[in-house]
Amino acid sequence: MSEPIYLVDLGLGNLGSVTNMLTRAGAQVQRVSEPAALADASKVILPGVGSFDAMVRKLDAAGFRQPILEHGRQGKHLLGICLGMQLLSAGSEEGKLAGLGLIPGRVRRFSFKGDLAHLKVPHMGWNQVKLVHQHPLGRGLEADARFYFVHSYYFDCESEGDVLFRTSYGLDFASGVQRDTVMGVQFHPEKSHRFGLQLIKNFVEL
Fold first, then answer.
1. Would you call 82 a catalytic residue per the annotation?
2. Which of these is catalytic: 71, 82, 94, 123?
3. Is 157 noted as a catalytic residue in this protein?
4. Three-state DSSP class for 138?
5. Global pTM value
6. 5-204: which CATH topology?
């Protein structure tokens, strides 16, 4: 069996669903609420839902900021899911606190006017995800792969080279980001059936 995947437990995110999907993908899962546990981890998943500042406060209060930064900077694999992806940025229009800054960029709110005023925020439901450049996380995903989204904010990367997946909703936004061994997806793979399972398998097999 492959090495365990460490799942950061801040009490935010679909931890049960993520755990179940990881198990289906053949992974051992270690849910961790103590930062020291990450010292032994080679692969970490940071899930999250809710507001940016609330998650930053929980992350900092639990002492996870520095261990996660060190994990990413040491060339170990890190995957942020939904709000966990947004925390990889420098910060968000949703709040005032600093993100992890592992991938340069800021998180911005969808704002639609004129011909696009009919588009609802949050962006919710199934949407197509396109792989921007070849990467092991996208291995085996069909050209029409669809994933489940629930979000009002999107990651605006400073560098186009950090965009891994793109999705169209009023504008083409980064639905996946990647720099070195740090990755993030805005959608919920744990809610995305066979497409989500394929992506999670890809992460497990990195």
1. yes
2. 82
3. no
4. helix
5. 0.96
6. Rossmann fold (3.40.50)
